[in-house]
Amino acid sequence: MADAVPSSVLALSGSVTLDTLDEVRALLCGAETVSHVDLSAVTALDTAGAWLLLGHQGMRIEAAAPAQDLLLRTVEAAMPPPRKFEQREARLQPGDVLADVGARVAGFISTSAQGIGFTGLIVARLAMTLVRPRRLRLTALVHHMQDVGLNAVPIVALMGFLIGVVLAFQGATQLRQFGAEVFVVDLIAVSILRELGILLTAIIVAGRSASAFTAAIGSMKMREEIDAMRVLGLDPIELLVLPRLLALVILLPVLGFVANLAGLVGGGLMAWFELGISPSQFRTQLLANVGASQAMVGLSKAPVFAVIIALVGCQQGFLVKGDAESLGMRTSRSVVIAVFLVIVVDALFSVFFGLSGV
To answer: What is the pTM of this model?
Structure first.
């Protein structure tokens, strides 16, 4: 395969083909002081051999036959140019920070504009449906009511029960220092009925239903089913968005009511075990000091939370591109945006009700 010639020249012989590629590679890698490769004794050369010879930069190829020289030049012309790596400074430049901030601000403005436009489209379609109620798909509405409402009752009830238990235990620990254990009933009732019951329910529904809406609509977008609907003269908003929106608006207050009841039951049981407040005493204290207005304040937020969750989940589904990576990104983004907006709107409601004296 190689002849003994001056140390700066490696003379190859025989075949330099795919079958002998490993042997030739070993010779080339072991010849550290070689600057020339002599092909005068090579009887066969193929594309793989030419690629191997040309891949060792710094070695000149000599005495190649005309056919071999043509093959070498053809392979060399087809090889990609060597990549040049530029060493960049590790320091963060002020322009990079400004560019990143500008890109984020522009993205936020674009997302907000898309959300406003999508909301306006939904309002227009909803007004058309109210004028012509027959356009509403009742079968789809009932299906989504079961999916987003009835199927979520167990997890919502368990969450409410555990929140009531935690509030009762922590409240009893703190109020016992002041001899005001009986006010743990007021603490549980006001916290759950006014804030925590509906807020945590909305967060659970956002994580459960917003992601499901995005995944379902996004999958249809990837399979071009939404384009097929438009070709058939069907409105995807009426078929896909309105049933989900109305199902959440109808059943999120019901789920909030379930969470409130479960929270009161959990808090009452913990108050009974920890403080000795019997269920009859708990009920008497609850009815005496906590009015139905507290529950109405909490449940009044439910339709707004439902609209936010449904709009975010459906909009992100329509923004899915044609790959699975986009579907996963939009699904996670819908949950984050929905939960964030729910918390922000709940804070605004709290400030509004506080200033109104409700």
So the answer is: 0.69
